Amino acid sequence: MKSLLSRLLHRSWYSRIQILSDLHLEIGQQYASFTFPATAPYLLLAGDIGRLLDYHDYLSFLQAQTARFEVVFLVLGNHEFYGLTYEDALAKAGRLMDEPALDGRFVLLDKTRWDSPRSSLSILGCTLWSFIPDDKIDIVQSRVKDFKRIGDWTPATHNSLHAQEAAWLRSEVANLTAATLQKPRNVLVVTHHAPCIDGTSQPEHAHNTWSSAFATEMLASGDWSPVKTWVFGHTHYSTDTVRNGVRIVANQRGYVMPLHSNRSAVNNNGSNYFDPAKVIIN
Length: 282
Prior knowledge:
- The protein is α/β, with parallel strands linked by helices.
- The protein has one domain: Purple Acid Phosphatase, chain A, domain 2.
- The chain is 26% helix and 18% strand.
- It contains six helices and eleven strands.
- A six-stranded mixed β-sheet has the order 5-6-7-8-10-9, covered by helices on one side.
- A hairpin with a 5-residue loop joins strand 5 and strand 6.
- The radius of gyration is 18 Å and the shape is globular.
- This is Calcineurin-like phosphoesterase domain-containing protein.
- InterPro entries: Calcineurin-like_PHP (IPR004843), Metallo-depent_PP-like (IPR029052).
- Pfam families: Metallophos.
- GO terms for molecular function: hydrolase activity.
């Protein structure tokens, strides 16, 4: 009985994932000063943690986390690419995987599937750049800084990467759908951009003319039945709700100046706040 209880507790512990995104540590160079409690064995960073242009400071932040968590997962946000070309930033992100300082505890989720050796947890991760319709390209280019801050970045590149990542994600979910018949998995998807429009940003921004830069209606079509939870960032709006049978969760800090490094961003009605200790169980 004790052995069974021990196994159940062990499995339960390794189903806990602490989630944070949009820390924006590049604002005032907060890579060393921003702190938060560790409340799970796994840490999931859903993008816009900082800029890969600040490589050594970014690495130091990750090193502080791999010293506290068994595994640290990172999905790249758009701000990770600022000040660099897409390819150069991707190369820097790849270097992180080989950094001895991270002690083999860091996983870059760039069209990556990770299966836990300790539980039935499977994580699928990619940036999932959004899809920008032709009639929204001009307004998105004028309102979104990516096209000025990422070298050689164009709407065509943005949409091409969306198509590649969306196809990869659907393929992996289809594979897991088939595999679940043999060996059930608890599937967690993490992307930086949001998987649907409604409920993923401040209500007053949900249907503005440049919302396609932040979210794409992924959940409205296809079979996502193996997916238990979908974590996202990018919109600076924390939420925990259900869409099309999938729990969608965001825990986003947003732009915070250094003197307010532990402030929680709360909207006008007191909900949708950033919780540095937030954990999901998948």
